[in-house]
Write a sequence for this structure.
């Protein structure tokens, strides 16, 4: 695993089954070498960002935050899964746990980051089912470590396809009950050091078996990090901007027929002081030319048509778009750019849920379709 600039990326699907710890152990053992490499690269990146020893930073980060009680309350199985990954990969649990906390570390460092991730969804309309789609933009050091976790159904869990990085429990995904989730960082929103971290929110949603329960879970937890979640639920899609104090629905279309988002708040006013100062210092014209704003404008333009016309072809065109040369929706891997499109997913819902995944920027990497072994008759 590992790819250079423009290199070929292996399409890797990891089948996981059994108890939470067993799933994690399989993950850690089968990707032991890859996890070791990407964790070392992650530490190097942390050291550069914070200009300090990464091991000391991780130790301090874990000492000054308290996410475990929230995980035990809302997603206890996932703590066991992370323990399994750590044991399988031969790494300390503390290291593997901190590796899961991608956005929480960004919040801890409190550094306004470059924009990343563009997400969208459309309800079932006309001949097409509902969709949730995303370009997942991540740090360049993660390139070559893309993987899909195929989690087998059990008595307590639906079958799932989870797109992620080796060693990480989730970035986004879909289950065979037609529930899908994509997320975008909103560092501008208030956060907490004892809420449920983003990766655990994603997997918590995918553990739900009904649209109602998925929405209830999203609204009922305490969120650790400011985040936008596009939630697909049967034939419907929702957009929620979550801060630690409130979850606010965003509707770009009044009827809720389409949703889309990038990396700046549009509905939630639970803002951090530094963002309020940032807003005050910029004119409306200056704000409109930001990375997140330009990508949002691009998605909005592609979705400026009746919902019945927004099919898989339109979604792929949107994910591959480069309408802005400086701030494209699809970001190539460049030597001088710390962020790139790690992968793209198109998650089909309604009666026949499935996942299409591109490992890397979707304008240069083909989508591969993944289908569930079992689809319950009632998934709406």
């Amino acid at each position: 695993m590992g790819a250079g600039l423009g290199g070929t990326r292996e399409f890797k699907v990891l089948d996981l089954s059994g108890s939470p710890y067993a799933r994690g152990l399989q993950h850690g053992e089968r990707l032991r070498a890859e996890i070791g490499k990407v964790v070392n690269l992650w530490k190097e990146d942390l050291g550069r960002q914070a200009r300090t020893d990464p091991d000391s930073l991780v130790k301090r980060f874990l000492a000054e935050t308290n996410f475990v009680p929230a995980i035990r309350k809302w997603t206890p199985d996932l703590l066991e899964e992370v323990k399994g990954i750590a044991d399988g990969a031969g790494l300390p649990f503390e290291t593997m746990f901190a590796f899961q906390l991608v956005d929480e570390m960004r919040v801890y460092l409190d550094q306004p980051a470059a924009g990343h991730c563009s997400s969208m969804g459309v309800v079932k309309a006309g001949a097409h089912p509902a969709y949730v789609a995303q370009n997942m933009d991540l740090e360049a050091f993660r390139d070559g470590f893309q993987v899909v976790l195929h989690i087998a159904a059990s008595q307590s869990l639906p079958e799932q396809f989870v797109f992620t990085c080796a060693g990480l429990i989730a970035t986004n995904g879909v289950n065979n009950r037609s529930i899908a989730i994509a997320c975008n960082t909103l560092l501008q929103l208030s956060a907490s050091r004892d809420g449920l971290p983003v990766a655990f929110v994603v997997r918590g949603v995918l553990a739900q078996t009904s649209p109602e329960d998925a929405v209830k879970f999203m609204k009922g937890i305490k969120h650790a990090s400011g985040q936008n979640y596009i939630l697909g639920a049967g034939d419907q899609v929702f957009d929620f901007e979550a801060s630690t104090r409130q979850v606010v629905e965003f509707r770009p279309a009044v009827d809720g027929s389409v949703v889309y988002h990038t990396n700046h708040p549009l509905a939630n006013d639970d803002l951090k002081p530094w963002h309020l100062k940032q807003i005050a210092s910029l004119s409306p014209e200056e704000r409109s030319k930001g990375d997140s704003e330009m990508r949002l404008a691009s998605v909005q333009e592609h979705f400026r048509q009746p919902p019945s016309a927004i099919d898989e072809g339109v979604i792929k065109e949107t994910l591959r778009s480069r309408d802005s040369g400086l701030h494209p929706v699809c970001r190539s891997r460049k030597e001088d750019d710390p962020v790139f499109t790690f992968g793209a997913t198109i998650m089909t819902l309604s009666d026949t849920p499935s996942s299409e995944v591109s490992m890397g920027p979707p304008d240069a990497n083909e989508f591969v379709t993944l289908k569930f072994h079992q689809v319950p008759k009632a998934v709406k």
Summary: The mean pLDDT is 93.
